[in-house]
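Hey, weird one. I pasted the Cytochrome P450 20A1 isoform X1 sequence into the form twice and got a warning about non-standard characters only the second time. First submission, copied straight from the form history:
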Amino acid sequence: MLDFAIFAVTFVIILVGAVLYLYPSSRRASGIPGLNPADEKDGNLQDIVNRGSLHEFLVSLHQEFGSVASFWFGGRPVVSLGSVEQLRQHINPNHTTDSFETMLKSLLGYQSGMGGGANETVIRKKVYESAINNTLKNNFPLVLKLVEELVGKWKSFPEAQHTPLCAHLLGLAMKTVTQLALGERFRDDTEVISFRKNHDAIWSEIGKGYLDGSLEKSSSRKGHYDEALSEMESVLLTVAKERKAQRKQTVFVDSLLQSSLTERQIMEDCMVFTLAGCVITANLCIWALHFLSTSEDVQEKLYQELEDVLGSDPVSLDKIPQLRYCQQVLNETVRTAKLTPVAARLQEVEGKVDQHVIPKETLVIYALGVVLQDSDTWSTPYRFDPDRFEEESARKSFCLLGFSGNQTCPELRFAYTVATVLLSTLVRQLKLHKLKGQVMEYRSPPRWRQRAPLHSHTHCSAKDVKMAELQMLLEEEIPAGRSALLDSFTNLERVAEYCESNYVQSPDKQRALEETKNYTTQSLASVAYLINTLANNVLQMLDIQASQLRRMESSINHISQTVDIHKEKVARREIGILTTNKNTSRTHKIIAPANPERPVRYIRKPIDYSLLDDMGHGVKASAQNMKAGGGGLPRTNPPTQKPPSPPMTGKGTLGRHSPYRTLEPVRPPVVPNDYVSSPTRNMAHPQQSPARTASVNQRNRTYRCSSVLQHEPPGAAAPKPAGGRLPAVPPTLVCHRSAQHGPQP
């Protein structure tokens, strides 16, 4: 029992150690360095979303883990190769499948090959490539015609008109691919517009929805994608049946119908070619024109080659291989713009890259965008330099990546042909140049001017995608839908006339009626489709315009808020100025007079006290003689009236030369003319002693103004009190000159 317990404990310890030892490596693909899954279900999808794109994620992945790295796409391990040497080791054993086709079909849910082994896959690939080559040979004049129409349209524009270059070149690619792949049906603009809507819906979700997992999380987006995919598949199946009945061999689908492929496989190949062909062709043309506008030397060198090889003749399919410098320009465009940044292959058999083993059924990502910007492979990798492909090593590396030679994907060869036709036609008639004073961005198209002897200029500035779509709707889609609706009106009249005449003339009325019903159903369905298409275009236009109005309203509101904030700041600043403490000085400012006075020199003068001797003195006088117990000056005559003496000029209280004058003396009271003396005044006064008189006179001389007894008013009888005394009355003021009041004798 003890032995069993020891064995059990030892086994558990070994098992736990094995799990701890193997767990970190099991989270990576066969021990290849890389990221552990951030989520059990989504893997590293959130890391891809955070980086913005799969290309940016791969750049950071290889910077951290080297040229061979791994990550998790959902619950599936993925190996990424990011150098030329590792790609060379892996491509050779897996050269039977196309990496771009494999990735696109896997995203669409299609199967690569014919459902069998490697031989069937090779056969299907050869059929696909042969169909594209035959299509270019049979329809090269059509490509030249479409390009000349676009260049002629650009030449006819006024000087200052802006052109949505991206929208126009995408339209050129869409028309070229659909007409060469599916036939004359897509010469109608309404068919091209309908095809483009489904194409854009599918491609946008393939490029974004599948990578970040948002497509599966949004039921509305998923429904819109499934609807667009089913409509496009239905159109392709219908075209294949129509072309099979016509037995023509001029377009891409005709070549596929001649093979042993099933209808489903033909539809899948047509889907891949139309989706990839439109996008690759449009991007190659757009980037080629952009890079040519940034380098006048490259543009002039290309112009000289076109003049030397073609002269004044249009380009032909057999002369394209002679345009070597044009081929270098397109190669450098693909490399600099990273036209195809990512490709993928499924590891069919177990492989090995360096010391790392890649298991079977592992998804292998080719980080072409990382390799195309690798400084170890390319000198000055971020510079547009077509001359680098004059070196044999650069051409071999480029061929190894699948951008030239036998490894080139068929869609890229098709895009090279269309871009060569565009450059050979455009560069000989228009000269491209950058907008002065504007920094060119990724979405910024160039501006061009016509070569001599033409001198008009056509501007093409950077436009938003919504503006390009709006202009496309206003210029092409809505007018085309309206004209198609008008044509259907004429066709309905013709159908009605035919049905009427057929019903009248036909002996079998029932058959004629059934035929009329069929024509009616088909005609009404066609009209309903046209109305629906036109209504959708109008609604889309209104949505774009409403979005622009909302954006404009938002800008106006932002400006209004900015103005209000500025006003409030100004108001607060002005109010704050009034509330701040001011440091006022204690001394007030002295303002000097305009005409200052001359200062007067101070002269001290002695005081003359004798100046007051001539001004007179106040004396006390009794109003009436007091008979008993009283004394005073005897007054036998009434006071006389005498005017005051005039003032002394030039005299002052402060001195003889003082600027201040002496106040005028107060005029003494005037006795009225009807003055009546009191009876007591006529009475004999008792003799007063000289001493008493002298004392009174002396006291009167001391004051200028003295108090006297108030006299009784005339005619009033003063009552005599007991004891013979007069009552005391308030004193009054009397002024006399000092000369009149000397001492009494």
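That's the output from the first submission. The warning seems to come from a hidden character in my clipboard, not from the data itself. The longest helix spans residues 509-579.
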